[in-house]
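Input/output pair, single chain:
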Amino acid sequence: MADLPELPESTRRLHALQWKELIQKHRFDGDHLKWHESADRRRQAAGPRMTPKFGPPGDPVMYVGTKGEPLSFEEARERADKARVASQSSPAVIDRIGIAETIALARERFLGTDREYLSIWAKETEGNSEEFSQWLEQIRQTVRREVGDVWRTSKWHAAWFERACEGELDDALGELVASESRRARSFEMQHLKSPHLSLAAIVATDGKPDLALVFDSTEQVLKLGREALERAQAVRMPEADITEPSSSNARNHLKTKPDRIEDNLTEIQKRQTAL
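Output:
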């Protein structure tokens, strides 16, 4: 299996900060350890109250008990409410608490990490989508470990995660791996069919050929501009013999050639980002 490329230190730091943001956004900052004890969450997990059932106009609505005896709506509603209250202490009901929230946290973390590596794959590899699929499997394992650690703060919660949540979490991450693998494969196919478009441009524009062409053209302009800037910076420019320009226009006029090139490059990059 192809190893994940090592990210720069600044990117790793960014990922750590983003993880903290996700923890707070999805409310996994400590209170989640009390979710299974919450009466409100147990009521939600037990499901809705019984609601009336309406048949064709004129037909009576029939309710029956566990032994087939006829019940009025009020009697059936009372029995359903008692059963619902009793089910709130059921291990099966309690085990459902926290699963959806955990999967939502993992999903957002996976997709954020996937975007980072997708860009690297498009720019720095030969563009083999099968290699990227192997990266996705490793991202899946990393996210599963990160999310599992959120619950592994006590023996009970660790056991709950392994018993009730980990399987569904792994299935959800597996679906993301499959969908993102298909996406990378479609990018590779588009690049092979349109080799005049770079894979990086196709990925950056989500497969839109017109925008990808603009992206590549802008990238070429930036490359030429950077080369011109490097050449200009290599030439020692004489300093202006003026101490206090009288206006901002004068200051701009006195900018060196490298300064003007760099300003133009900055403006081009802003426009490319807006694509």
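Residues 9-38+97-193 form one domain. Strands lie at 63-64, 70-71.
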